[in-house]
Specification:
It is elongated, with a radius of gyration of 26 Å. The protein has 354 residues and is α/β, with parallel strands linked by helices. The termini are far apart. Helix 1 packs across helix 2 and helix 1 packs across helix 3. Helices cover 42% and strands 16% of the residues. A 7-stranded mixed β-sheet has the order 7-6-8-9-10-12-13, with helices on both faces. The protein has a 6-stranded parallel β-sheet with strand order 2-1-3-4-5-11, with helices on both faces. The protein has 3 domains: 47 residues, 434 Repressor (Amino-terminal Domain) (Orthogonal Bundle), CATH 1.10.260; 130 residues, Response regulator (Rossmann fold); 158 residues, Rossmann fold. It contains 12 helices and 13 strands.
Length: 354
């Protein structure tokens, strides 16, 4: 049977109201002596008292629980962000309920509605990225909401995103500076915020240098490993192969590398690889991968703090749009073809050798 305030009061020889004030951290306001406070806390510890969070939540109209909806927990990028959000939430006194939508919009709608109905204090959603009417409905109902990664320009809520365009532009220019003119890109889910930005950065870098983009080299249908594998197989089957492939997610990169190994191709001797996202293990591959690294841990921590700001100050919390800058980490997977085009950095980005 759970220990109650009455049990503590009886053992300590105090009133229930005194015990309640101490455990609710109101000793100073209620002018309770330091000795009495120590006695209550000692007795509570001896009895292994655990506060009834449900009852407390009903009184305060809060559950101290946050909801997190992610598109694919098996994706290292989302797994890392989930871990960051979990750590920060726990540190700040909140529990976290995580739902995986498996990149499925109907399931995303179901999960967000379910979490809201269960009374979570707020939601962090990493959406599939195709539609957002269900998120607008949550906002109309007063549910605190922060959107991370794949955002929507018309959705009026706080967001945490990466400069996808700038990161892809810089990565593509790095390939161009190393002499590459025939480059392929394996994009993620088309017409989502993330994919649009990365694809446009790729295309605009070509345009800046008056390079033609072969439409056969723009491929990809989602962010999964299978897409990386299948599309790389296709690209390597072309009569005029690309000299470099730009993979736009961790899982796409892993699938592409699997196909490359099967084809007996040597990186970077036969083919250069540039990746968006940066798996922790890529630095230890047989050929360490040059990558656009996203500040994943910062994304998770900022998202939690934006959400708690909404929860604690609903009347004065204006939507905030936080854009984080990725870094191009240069390793060994990009080979040089002919003479280098130039050495200047692009958009003030930071080149990091590893």
């Amino acid at each position: 049977m759970a220990v109650t305030l009455n049990d503590i009061a009886t053992k300590a020889g105090l009133s229930i109201s005194t015990v309640s004030r101490v455990l609710n951290k109101k000793s100073a306001r209620s002018r309770i002596s330091r000795g009495t406070e120590k006695l209550v806390l000692k007795t509570a510890k001896e009895l292994n008292y655990r506060p009834n969070q449900l009852a407390r939540g009903l009184r305060l109209k809060r559950t101290h629980t946050l909801g997190l909806v992610v598109p694919d927990i098996s994706n290292p990028f989302f797994a890392y962000i989930t871990k960051s959000i979990q750590n920060v939430s726990h540190r700040l006194g909140y529990s976290l309920v995580v739902c995986d939508t498996d990149e499925n919009l109907p399931l995303e709608i179901e999960h967000t509605n379910l979490l809201a109905s269960k009374g979570v204090d707020g939601l962090i959603v990493l959406p599939v990225g195709q539609k957002y009417a269900h998120l607008e409905a949550l906002l109309r109902n007063g549910t605190p909401l922060v959107v991370v990664d794949r955002s929507f320009d018309s959705l009026e809520t706080s967001t945490v995103i990466i400069d996808n365009y700038g990161g892809a532009f810089e990565a593509t220019e790095f390939l161009i500076r190393n002499g590459h003119k025939r480059m392929a890109i394996i994009q993620g889910l088309p017409d989502t915020f993330t994919s649009r930005g990365r694809l446009q950065g790729f295309l605009d870098a070509h345009e800046k240098h008056s390079l033609h983009v072969d439409p056969h080299l723009v491929v990809g249908r989602d962010f999964r490993k299978e897409t990386g594998y299948i599309e790389t197989k296709f690209l390597l089957s072309l009569e005029h192969r690309p000299t470099a492939i730009f993979t736009t997610s961790d899982l796409i990169t892993l699938g592409a590398l699997e196909a490359i190994i099967e084809e007996g191709i040597e990186v970077p001797r036969d083919l250069s690889i540039m990746a968006f996202d940066d798996l922790e293990s890529v630095a230890y591959f047989r050929c360490p991968i040059t990558a656009v690294a996203q500040p994943k841990e910062n994304m998770g921590e900022i998202a939690v703090k934006l959400l708690l700001d909404q929860i604690r100050h609903p009347d004065r919390s204006e939507p905030k749009r936080i854009v984080l800058k990725p870094k191009l980490i240069v390793r060994e997977s990009v080979g040089q073809i002919g003479e280098p085009v130039g050495t200047h950095d692009v958009h003030g980005g930071e080149l990091v050798s590893s």
